[in-house]
Design a protein that fits this description.
Elements lengths: L13 H14 L21 E2 L2 E2 L1 H18 L13 H6 L2 H10 L1 E2 L5 E2 L12 H12 L17
Antiparallel strand pairs: 1-2, 3-4
Helix pairs in contact: 2-5
Length: about 160
Amino acid sequence: MNLTSFPGHRRATAAQHLAAALLGGALFSPAISADYSSFKFSPETPYYVEDNKVDFGTYNGFRRYHSECHTCHGPAGMGSAYAPALMKSMEVLTFDQFVEVVINGRTGMDQRVMPGFASNLNVLPYISDLYAYLKARSDGVVGTARPPNFPKVKP
């Protein structure tokens, strides 16, 4: 993953290198899966849903979102007085752009500031899970409640 291709990039930090290393395998995984047990995250196919159950990564994204993000972005990702709604943003945000914002934070057009989460180990190793959950929410395949999930598949 080349984090230097983003507009306004800064020199890659150790946290960015860690994120790239953690996500490297995910970025090159096959996008098509036969069922949840063989599903692998990819930015093009970030989640798996069957009979209203989600893959464990998407479920974990729900858990991580509600432990770290919903305080500002609202319990359903619909925004609050502190931070904007994420559902519209997730319709157009690429995985690389999402990673950039989560790691480095950003200042919105309304001057609200999102801090970077590069040093938060409850977020950084699970960026792909957060992306999967929020993408599933914005695609309308996951509701606002805790989604039922398939068991975690060990590699």
